[in-house]
Amino acid sequence: MKCLVAFTVCLLISSGCQAGFFDSLKEGIKGTLDAFVDAAKGSGLELLAQFKQKTGTLVSQLAQSLIFNAANAMNTAGSGSKRTAEAAAEKLNNLEATVGKHMGIFQGVFNSLTDSLQSTISKVADLTLDQFNKKIDDTVKTHNLLTDIAMQAATEDLKEKVLGTVHTVLGTQKRGLIPDAIKQHIMSAMSQHAEKLKQLMAGAGQAIQQAATAIHEAVSGNKEGGIGAVKEHVMELFQSFIQHHQQPAVQFPATQ
């Protein structure tokens, strides 16, 4: 990835004196900016994989904990406990399917964003710098709004599925044994990953805008140090983006 940035910036250096920013430099600029999207894709896919695995584990553990805590509260013992465990195991597969459905929605939102970023980058020759930056801003804002909507839908659905699993195993008349905080517990855990996705995309958008602005200023003769300075600056932007978004996995809160 870093080699791609270095190569395309070198392309700018070799041809920048002979053409305008939005004409013959289009492919070099596009390649440079696409490198940031490619990096964001890699980090985003890792986050989504963690998101799915951790959410699946969370809801399964939460349902099991509620089932067995409630069973103990009802003094369920011996063979009754065994039957409860067997019934719970049968129902937990349904929770995994629900998690998979919602993770597919998050994946679709993420893919739509990266596709939109690359589409905007491909039109760089047809846009002023202000227009380009606004389109990047609008794309990131739309992604983050849709991510929030998807998160709300996921937590509500997962809450209902967890409750449904517990009720099916223990009986609907045991509703009073279910903690009211179940949705907040799920939301608190899931929001950590959703926020990291939003931060990743906001960071990618900002880095793309900064790189585009630096290149524009260099080829327009308004950047101190000229093309040599912009090459170094774009590389620094790229390395900073990579380092900032390669963070340890988010830890979900333990189920009580």
Description of the molecule:
With 256 residues, the protein is mostly helical. It has one domain (2-245). It contains six helices and no strands. The chain has helices spanning 2-15, 26-73, 79-122, 129-170, 182-219, 226-245. Helix 5 (182-219) runs antiparallel to helix 6. It is elongated and about 75 Å long. The model is unreliable at 1-22 and 247-256 (pLDDT under 50).
Summarize the structure.
The chain has helices at about 1-15, 25-75, 80-120, 130-170, 180-220, 225-245. The chain has about 260 residues and is mainly alpha-helical.
Mean pLDDT: 75
Measured between the Cα atoms of the first and last residue, the distance is 43 Å
Structural class: mainly alpha
- How would the global form be characterised? elongated
H and E string? HHHHHH
Count of alpha/pi helices: 6
Contiguous uncertain segments of 5+ residues: 1-22, 247-256
- Cα radius of gyration in angstroms: 25 Å
Report the strand count: 0
Percent of residues in beta strands:
under 5%
Helix content: over 70%
Blueprint of the fold:
Elements: H1 2-15, H2 26-73, H3 79-122, H4 129-170, H5 182-219, H6 226-245
Helix pairs in contact: 1-2, 1-6, 2-3, 2-4, 2-5, 2-6, 3-4, 4-5, 5-6
Relevant terms:
single chain, disordered C terminus, disordered N terminus, 256 residues, mainly alpha, 6 helices
